Amino acid sequence: MTEPPNDFSIDEPLVRSLLEEQHPDLAHLPLAHVDAGWDNALWRLGEELAVRMPRRETSSWLTERELQWLPQVAPRLPLPVPVALRVGAPGSGYPWRWAVVPWLGGEPGDREPITDPDSAIVLARFLRALHVPAPSDAPFNPFRGSVPLSEHLGGADFERTLSDVSDLVDVDRIRLVWEDATAAPPWEGEPMWLHADLHPANVMITAGALTGIVDFGDMCAGDPANDLAAGWTLLPREALSTFLEAYGDIDAAMLRRARGWALRCGISLIGIGLAGKRGLPGGKSSWLGGGLATIENVLLQ
Questions:
Q1: pTM to 2 decimals?
Q2: Cα(172)–Cα(299) distance, integer angstroms
Q3: Is the CB of residue 181 less than 8 Å from the CB of residue 253?
Q4: How many angstroms separate the CA atoms of 183 and 175, rounded?
Q5: Domain ranges in the chain?
Q6: Is 108-300 a CATH 3.90.1200.10 domain?
Q7: Which has the closest alpha carbon to 98: 144, 140, 147, 43?
């Protein structure tokens, strides 16, 4: 669970050079590096903008996916999202496309949890707006909701992952939930648009309220249960029933699959959090609490 190394070093002179070459009207604005995720370097540009740049070749295709598809779904979404305002081309030795996006205020959810009770309804409305039939050429994501849950963390992989977190969670109860989730009938409806990566670090929180969603690089077409897992991963336990009711039209099979996707996410968050606690490269200790809370929410639901 370690962050892959950078393929390209991104510093302030590079960002400034790209802006001067391609968007000179923005080049005079102050630049400040912001701690970001695994795939992108993020620089705040003035008060209202940010420059988002892939850090390695394998993440550049995530940026391409977001640049192509997010503008098509963003207009109907009821929360701010980082749809590109400007697109940058390779230059100054930098090899990939990049973007100037709106700066979304607040703190990532791994640093400030959701405490506002109305956020359950806000999240449900966001997902209901997002979850519409995707076009036939929408992205396929083999690691997210485009494929059945049963193809993830199965057999030896699942047991190996559980062994990494066995000191912190009830492994036997997790196995029961996982077996129930993977045995649930699969999604048989049209593939829906998914965010597909709704963990705490990909949402923005202001004064305890959900105020933005970021990082659409994994967006794809598939089973909406993948995104519904956010009810367990993002919300306090007492808000889950409000979230599910507000989303509506959730049958028993979808609920079982959503719990499984939440379980998978929680275990991953714990692994990344433990790596951070041990001082391993790319570990994020702030993710441990969210992972443990997710598992607890799933087991108590």
A1: 0.94
A2: 11
A3: no
A4: 12
A5: 12-103, 108-300
A6: yes
A7: 43
H helix intervals, the chain: 12-22, 57-73, 119-130, 155-165, 171-182, 225-228, 230-234, 240-247, 252-277, 287-300
Going 63 to 69 to 72 to 77, the CA torsion angle's sign is negative
Q: Return the structure tokens found at 232.
A: 């367990």
- Are 275 and 38 a contacting pair, CB within 8 Å? no
Q: Give the Cβ contact number of residue 193 at 10 Å.
A: 25
Give strand ranges (E) for 79-206.
86-88, 98-102, 107-108, 192-194, 203-206
Tokens found for residue 2: 């370690």
Rounded-to-integer distance, Cα 26 and Cα 103, Å: 14
Contacts for 114 with CB less than 8 Å, ≥ 6 apart: 203, 205, 208, 209, 210, 234, 235, 236, 239
Rounded Cα distance, 67 and 181, in Å? 33
Kind of pairing between the strands at 98-102 and 203-206 = unpaired
pLDDT tens string, the chain, 301 residues long: the values are 445 567 788 999 999 999 999 999 999 999 999 976 678 999 999 999 999 999 989 899 999 999 999 999 999 999 999 999 999 999 999 999 999 999 999 999 999 999 999 999 999 999 999 999 999 999 999 988 999 888 876 656 677 778 878 888 899 999 999 999 999 999 999 999 999 999 999 999 999 999 999 999 999 999 999 999 999 999 999 999 999 999 999 999 999 999 999 999 998 898 888 877 777 656 688 888 999 999 999 998 7
Contact (CB, 8 A) for 88 and 99: yes
Tokens describing residue 296: 């607890």
CATH 3.20.20.70: does it fit domain 12-103?
no
